[in-house]
Amino acid sequence: MARLTCPYCYRTFAEKEMLFRCSGLRAADGTFCKPEPDPVRVRLGDRDEVPPVVEGDGRKLSAVCSRCGNKATVQLCPHCHAQLPVHYGKIDTRMVAMIGAKFSGKSVYTTVLMHELIHRVGRRFDAAVVGADERTRKEFGSEERALYSEGVLPIATRPAADEQGRQPFVFKFSLGERKRFRSTLRHTVLSFFDTAGEDLESARGVAQNVGYLSSANGIIVLLDPLTVPGLVQTLGLDPSVLPDTSQQEAAKGDTPINILTRITEVLQQLPGVGPNRMIDIPVAIAFSKVDALWDALPANSPLRQPAPDGPFFPESDSRAMHDYVQALLLEWEGGQIDQLLHKHYRTYRYFGLSALGAVPPAKQPQQARQRVARSGIQPHRVEDPFLWLLSRLKVIETGRD
């Protein structure tokens, strides 16, 4: 029997093992189930009062609550009791992992990426992208408003050890057409878990993330190019105008090769990898903040060009970007990064992007949060790594021209 993976805790289960949650409505005889904290959810840091769990056959669309007799239709993960997306088990699920160094801009990137998918990229692919649960809709909406309306950057992701109840954002990506007599709609559940850079710096942090990564269908690794040894000197960049965080990370040795080495060590612990097998999970190596490099690059550099527009993934353009970044890496740091990826990963691709489009001004002492540049948010190719993964997973078409 096929196993399902929870998009919240990443543990697997059979479809029939899914649980339900009572509606909490008053029955015809006046009885109802009083909401109370769910012990399983409490252990995960969620103390909300909710109706009780109802057992039933998860292959069916509902079960009957033994307490009040009402029909329960909300499906739950049997492990973490998180509410699953509607018709879970009947639609595809894709887990996309997000990993990167401290200060590489993961939280900003995730917010801008989803904003672009919901608005611009959604129209490009004639796709509907919506939050799959109430928490995702509320928390993502709050972060989106703070960034786009108030112009303040998100707070850095806290390590897993500091935030027991941290959960992924889960979205539903719907493609296809609904016609009068038949539907060609395809729904894909996408789960984003923003892993803090510190989570990969200790044995405990690694252990906490192995389960998550073992369920990932694709991984986006976000790296700060300004921490690549030799880059600043090679391009003749003025260190005084670069973000302080990039210089601090480079100075203490938290370079891309170190980060990728830690990630590789985590993935090598996954079931079935072994010492002589390559890692099969496709990995997108995305260099963020490339806007800081533009003035030092030629006008025809692929890093400065906009992405082609069309309802497909532009393979030729992406390959040109990959080759260009690969050549730069060989020039900057002697090819350590590329050698590591070439020896351990079956499928990987380089990308260059900018979530904001301009370096944010330095945070002033009187400011509670850092703000975006006065020019506003002008994202550059933020969707490329994600669309590449979707094309590898056969969710969208790949264009060869």
Structural notes for this entry:
With 401 residues, the protein is an alpha/beta fold. Helix content is 28%, strand content 18%. The protein contains ten helices and 18 strands. It has helices spanning 39-43, 106-124, 134-148, 203-214, 231-235, 244-251, 256-267, 315-333, 336-344, 384-392, and strands at 3-5, 12-14, 19-21, 36-37, 49-50, 53-54, 63-64, 71-72, 74-76, 92-100, 128-131, 169-175, 186-194, 218-223, 283-287, 313-314, 348-352, 398-399. A seven-stranded mixed β-sheet has the order 11-12-13-10-14-15-17. A three-stranded antiparallel β-sheet has the order 6-3-9, with no helix packed on it. The chain has a two-stranded antiparallel ribbon with strand order 1-2. α2 crosses α3 (134-148). It is globular, with a radius of gyration of 22 Å. It starts with a strand and ends with a strand. Residues 161-165 have low confidence and may be disordered.
